[in-house]
Amino acid sequence: MMRIGTAALAMAAMVFVGATAHAGEGSDASATIAGREAGMRMSGAIMGNMKAVIDAGGDVKTQGFAARSLAGWAKAIPGMFPAGSEGGDALPTVWSDRAGFEARAAAYAAAAGRLADAAKAGDAAGFAAAWSEVRTACGACHDSYKKPDAH
Ligand code: HEC
After folding, report:
1. 78 alpha carbon, distance to own chain's centre
2. Which residues contact 46 (CB under 8 A, 6 or more apart)?
3. Which residues contact 42 (CB under 8 A, 6 or more apart)?
């Protein structure tokens, strides 16, 4: 009887933990928002470092890993905006015009892929051109899917 009682208590505890996790959906969304905002800022840092290499006439082959990282992040973007994660600086259009949002992410991924190819080839002119395409892709998405910067 003691054992059954203990098992029942354990079951009840598990149900309680499950209910708590369910009630915590809001905090799951804020973790998702924090994660995508951090990824966005890191992509901005990568872009800034690449621009410095371009302006200095540096070896673009050194940027291969960073460029592949950007391309991987670009592909991951739609998944960083799941249903239920509305908020942050994302506009409601991310969810209401999903096809358009995903097309912007795909355009970014394609440009970042060209950036990675140019880096691998050591093609400085191609790298600079692809970098501009990537930057255009950032802005094109932000124009329709991100709140304008408050500052
Ligand atoms: C497919 C759409 C899309 C693309 C492409 C995109 N972004 Fe974003 N970005 C967003 C959205 C939406 C937000 C707002 C997210 C939020 O606050 O939850 C955002 C937010 C940001 C932020 C602010 C993060 C913060 O601290 O709140 C920065 C910085 C940023 N993006 C940089 C970039 C850079 C740099 C690129 C290109 C290399 C890029 N983004 C490409 C959609 C995009």
Report:
1. 8
2. 66, 69, 70
3. 73
Confidence at 10, pLDDT banded by 50, 70, 90: low
Q: Give the rounded percent of residues in the chain with a pLDDT score beyond 90.
A: 79
State the Cα–Cα distance between residues 136 and 126, nearest whole angstrom: 15
Query: How far is the C-alpha of 127 from the C-alpha of 53, rounded, in Å?
Result: 10
Contact 85/115 with Cβ under 8 angstroms? Answer: no
**Cα 23 to middle of ligand 1, angstroms:** 28
Q: Which of 40, 42, 147 to mutate to test the pocket of ligand 1 (most atoms within 8 A of CB)?
A: 40
**Look-up: residue for tokens 């592949």?**
68
